[in-house]
């Protein structure tokens, strides 16, 4: 596979939104599954599909002009494949679309593009600033969410924010880069695209003096990707332990059994 890395001049914006939302559902990139047994009569169709895969890829920064094709990729894969989305049968969700594109103006997110110009993978990142004395506490995410199914996911994010404060764990850090979503086209999984997008994110953080990368993984497979890249778990919430009114809210299919936060310091 030929991969071209396109360099861009990227700097942090002069003013960043000090939101405290930790990485939502990030990261629903799945590792390639074992190929199924091909019955007689289907091999030609499968071979034809594989021949359409363009293995000459480039990695480049996402801009606001990429909003629609990025959302198209996410709707076809992330919106459907992410374990919590799948469990609640999320469907169309404008609130999630807004969340996905909120930080594109920072130019800290990256796309994998084939030679036909099709986006086949994305990593969406955003910078989170440490709250300062006197800052108003952020509103609960679930309170402002009109989508009833997505509101359940937002309530889980609120619960995590109440239980875990990354700035307490890293008191010397004044900001971190939050890897919010990692998604790859099903046909292109197993080619190392998730790792290449993550490497590009690490490079961006290093060049902009950001010392910490943060990932919240709702998927077992995305957590494995990050562990292979030397991210360390700092928080875990088994889905069986998250109860509302005494009842378990999320029970996605195994091996997705816990929500995990993983981090990587770049100054050590």
UniProtKB/TrEMBL annotation:
Catalysed reactions, as listed in the record: serotonin + hexadecanoyl-CoA = N-hexadecanoyl-serotonin + CoA + H(+); serotonin + acetyl-CoA = N-acetylserotonin + CoA + H(+); dopamine + hexadecanoyl-CoA = N-hexadecanoyl-dopamine + CoA + H(+); serotonin + octadecanoyl-CoA = N-octadecanoyl-serotonin + CoA + H(+)
Alphabetical list of InterPro entries matching this protein: Acyl_CoA_acyltransferase
CDD domains documented for this protein: NAT_SF
EC number of the protein: 2.3.1.87
Assigned keywords, A-Z: Acyltransferase, Transferase
Pathway: Aromatic compound metabolism; melatonin biosynthesis; melatonin from serotonin: step 1/2
EC class (word): transferase
Annotated GO MF terms: aralkylamine N-acetyltransferase activity
Record family assignment: Belongs to the acetyltransferase family. AANAT subfamily.
Protein name per its UniProtKB record: aralkylamine N-acetyltransferase
Organism per entry: Anopheles melas
């Amino acid at each position: 596979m030929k991969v071209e890395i396109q360099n861009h001049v990227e700097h942090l914006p002069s003013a960043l939104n000090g939101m405290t939302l930790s990485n939502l559902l990030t990261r629903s990139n799945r590792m390639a599954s074992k190929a199924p047994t091909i019955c007689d009569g289907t091999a030609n169709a499968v071979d034809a599909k594989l021949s359409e895969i363009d293995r000459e890829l480039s990695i480049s920064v996402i801009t606001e002009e990429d909003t629609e094709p990025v959302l198209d990729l996410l709707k076809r894969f992330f919106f459907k494949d992410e374990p919590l989305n799948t469990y609640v049968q999320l469907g169309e969700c404008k609130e999630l679309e807004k969340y996905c594109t909120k930080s594109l103006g920072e130019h800290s997110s990256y796309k994998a593009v084939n030679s036909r110009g099709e986006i086949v993978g994305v990593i969406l990142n955003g910078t989170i600033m440490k709250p300062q004395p006197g800052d108003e506490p952020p509103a609960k995410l679930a309170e402002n969410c009109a989508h009833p199914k997505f509101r359940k996911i937002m309530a889980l994010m609120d619960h995590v924010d109440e239980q875990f404060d990354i700035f307490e764990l890293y008191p010397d850090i004044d900001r971190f880069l939050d890897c919010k979503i990692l998604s790859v086209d099903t046909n292109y999984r197993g080619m190392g695209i998730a790792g290449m997008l993550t490497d590009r994110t690490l490079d961006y953080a290093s060049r902009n003096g950001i010392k910490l990368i943060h990932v919240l993984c709702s998927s077992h497979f995305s957590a494995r990707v990050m562990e292979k890249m030397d991210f360390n778990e700092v928080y875990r919430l088994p889905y069986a332990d998250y109860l509302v009114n005494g009842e378990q809210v999320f029970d996605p299919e195994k091996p997705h059994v816990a929500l995990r936060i993983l981090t990587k310091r770049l100054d050590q």
